[in-house]
């Protein structure tokens, strides 16, 4: 992670978005609006429901460093650093719990960290949410394994891993569900107290969803209030993002975004040479030394899952994608690389504990040397910049490439013009002030007239004229409109959290309290036993 210690911010596909997102999230927190949902200043000042749909957990963590005096650029780099470090630490603890061998766990964690796709996510894509998926996925599996072996901490750790994934990049639940579900099935088959296992698992899943309810419920509830299903570029995004098998084996490193098709190889979408060696060696042991292979059952399942994940990245699966996309929105087929990297990392540890003691050191050193050597050029950024934060804010309208979460009635064409703040016959703006979730406009109306404010309507937006709440109308471009009498007026448009959001936040608080109570109870019981 040496590249993150260089002065300035590095260029990457989504780095612009990350700067703007954290700026507004931290600003909202400083104004007492936490967690943020609607951001009034986005979308050229028309407002945008960014944090109803975009992940929040990395920014919640980022607030800790911002309050310590870190600059915005350093908060962004610190978060990427922590996601990388955390991924290795949690993978080590999962692998050690599962494989019962410290050196195997060390090998698995390094293979997991030193994956081309991992470096792509941080240094090329700057995809903050996905970087934290690398962190929370092994934590979730650690929790699952602890539940399997009846550890009292299993439920809490699993719930933290599940909620961490949901709050970092909820779409990845779909990409990761095959490996999670099959590990659960394998565990269920191999435990003796099956009913108790299922009850514990159910409570753990429920706790994970409760903790993340403040984000998850509003995101699903308000999904149909946005233009996401109208944007053909979003709905059919998957069609041009399949890869070839040769790209997964090896593809040249690059920093360009995908312009037309993922097969054009602007970026490297390889799984990794060390990761492929782990897969190949595990497969070889299944064939020639299955009886001596430890955990042969789950190894076979992991190898099968790798094939399934690879299949869904290739054109051959296009028909299945076309069917699935009618029910569940997915974007990039190559996101299945992440579960393959995870599985191959565990396979390296399984191979290590399955071979002769004399060969273990040779295998350990060889696969690590190959992994580090073949990734030696991938731990650098393209270039560094020293741009003012205002430049990022002025040039990123919504932090989404397709502006897909614009309110459903909003006209995207308005984003191409300057915001007049008020439009109406004989109406002029005297003063305007923004807060994260509100806009206050002092105006003069020369006559009785109808006007439209420079704010889109979204469920939760409230209109106050001269301090009195007024019914909201929506004009043909999705803006809030209203009637005015002659004279000077104050118009306040404020986003107020709906009942569904308040219920969701209450559920999250309940989940956190239950988790803490459970943790204190476990600690107390263990202390009494001692």
Quick tags:
530 residues
Tell me the number of helical segments per DSSP (H or I, 4 or more residues long).
20
Tell me about the biggest sheet? Answer: 5 strands, antiparallel
Low-confidence sequence ranges: none
Which class do the helix and strand fractions yield? alpha+beta
Instruction: List the strand order in the largest sheet.
Output: 4-5-11-7-8
How many distinct beta strands? 11
Helix content: 40-55%
Shape field: globular
Mean pLDDT: 95
Give the C-alpha Rg.
Answer: 25 Å
Distance between the termini: 42 Å
Strand composition percent: 5-15%
Give an overview of the whole structure.
The structure is a single chain. This protein has 530 residues and is an alpha+beta fold. 54% of the residues lie in helices and 11% in strands. Strands 4-5-11-7-8 form a five-stranded antiparallel beta sheet, with no helix packed on it. It is globular.
What are the SSEs and their pairings?
Blueprint lengths: L8 E2 L4 H16 L19 H4 L3 H11 L4 H28 L2 H12 L2 H9 L3 H21 L5 H16 L2 H19 L3 H18 L1 H9 L10 H4 L9 H5 L23 H16 L7 H16 L6 H7 L12 H18 L2 H18 L9 E2 L3 H7 L26 E3 L2 E9 L2 E8 L3 E8 L4 E5 L2 E3 L2 E2 L4 E6 L2 E9 L3 H31 L1
Antiparallel strand pairs: 1-2, 3-6, 4-5, 5-11, 6-10, 7-8, 7-11, 9-10
Helix pairs in contact: 1-3, 3-4, 4-5, 4-7, 5-17, 7-8, 7-9, 8-10, 9-15, 10-20, 11-20, 14-15, 14-17, 14-18, 15-17
